[in-house]
Design a protein that fits this description.
Structural class: mainly beta
Strand content: over 45%
Oligomer: single chain
Strand order of the largest sheet: 8-7-6-5-4-3-2-1-15-14-13-12-11-10-9
Number of domains: 1
Mean pLDDT: 88
Largest sheet: 15 strands, mixed
Shape: globular
Low-confidence stretches: none
Radius of gyration: 16 Å
Distance between the termini: 33 Å
Order of helices and strands: EEEEEEEEEHEEEEEE
Number of strands: 15
Length: about 190
């Protein structure tokens, strides 16, 4: 039987408009990440609930993502699968616009955007630019986003890196020694 490691964390925005709970189950054959985000949209829009259940291959690439979002007026569900080589499928149908992406992020979660860091294992001072499949919501639309990851420093307390989105200024991101998110700039922090 494979060893299992389970980890729970809550994240909160500095504005108090969203709260995320993450459960991380690591086994030799795969990592399963489940989370729920409760929040409000920008400019005072309706509250939402976003649930994700993501299965990662031991290499760190996404293999399956079951996603759902709820607002007071709408419920949306999406199932994505990937082969780990940049080919994605929505409910079994190829999603050509995501070709080349190995990673997945969500509009309301800082946690998912840190997942590629373990796979990249960047040396300090090194950087990588990745095309990432991005889910926006709560309508669960798909798009490609280019993220630039740069490893800045590390010690016994964890690591610090920066993440920049498509020409925007880089955000400072701190991870604990196990590579789990502690804080994302001044916007998200573990509570």
């Amino acid at each position: 039987m494979a060893a299992q490691s389970t980890w729970h964390a809550w994240y909160r925005t500095s504005q108090g408009d969203a709260l995320e709970h993450v459960t991380d189950q690591r086994r030799a054959e795969a990592t399963r990440r489940r989370g729920v985000v409760l929040g409000t949209g920008s400019r005072g829009s309706s509250p939402f609930r976003f649930d994700y259940d993501v299965l990662l291959h031991p290499s760190g690439t996404i293999r399956r993502a079951d996603l759902s979002a709820s607002t007071p007026t709408e419920d949306t569900q999406l199932t994505l699968t990937a082969d780990g080589f940049g080919h994605w499928f929505r409910h079994g149908v190829p999603v050509m616009e995501l070709t080349g992406c190995l990673d997945l992020t969500f509009w309301c979660s800082p946690q998912a955007a840190t997942w590629p860091l373990a796979r990249l294992a960047l040396d300090f001072g090194a950087s990588a630019t990745l095309p990432v499949a991005r889910v926006t919501g709560p309508d669960l639309e798909l798009a490609v986003q280019h993220l630039v990851y740069r490893s800045e420093s590390g010690d016994a307390a964890g690591t610090r890196c920066t993440v920049a989105r498509g020409g925007q200024a880089a955000d400072d991101v701190r991870l604990d020694p196990d590579g789990r998110l502690v804080a994302w700039a001044a916007r998200w922090h573990r509570v």
